[in-house]
Design brief:
Helix content is 58%, strand content 0%. The protein is mostly helical. The longest helix is centred in the N-terminal third of the chain and has 16 residues.
Length: 130
């Protein structure tokens, strides 16, 4: 039901992380869920200031904390606690600058709910995930 589009009607959705991970998977054959676990906290830290109120509300509703940055920390801690990787190195993935640039340049990014990423921002995010 969630992917048939009905629940998204009239809303700006954000699948930028998924699109980045799809390209990461195309270049590395990594597990999609693990890639998302590594990418999400880094991406959220990157776009947090572009949608502070949304992230603050998310932190309050999901993690019962008042600060968006603290909410992102709670997410990262939860990912670690359930045994998911938090870096590409933990996944056994080594990315050189050329592969990172290729992933960033080939990622199809549609406008997100907070901020539309550029290829250079994707490079920055991927580098922080190493």
């Amino acid at each position: 039901m969630g992917e048939n589009g009905i629940l998204k009607l009239g809303k700006v959705t954000d699948f930028q992380c998924h699109m980045i991970e799809h390209q990461l998977g195309a270049y590395t054959d990594c597990n999609h869920g693990q890639g998302l676990a590594v990418l999400h906290p880094v991406l959220y830290r990157h776009i947090n200031k572009s949608a502070e109120e949304k992230f603050r509300r998310w932190a309050q509703e999901v993690w019962l904390v008042q600060d968006a940055d603290e909410g992102i920390d709670f997410l990262a801690d939860f990912i670690r606690e359930v045994g998911l990787p938090t870096t590409f190195t933990e996944m056994g993935i080594t990315l050189d600058d050329d592969i990172i640039r290729a992933i960033a340049d080939s990622t199809i990014i549609t406008p997100g709910c907070c901020k539309q990423l550029t290829a250079d921002e994707i490079v920055e995010i991927l580098n922080k995930c190493k």
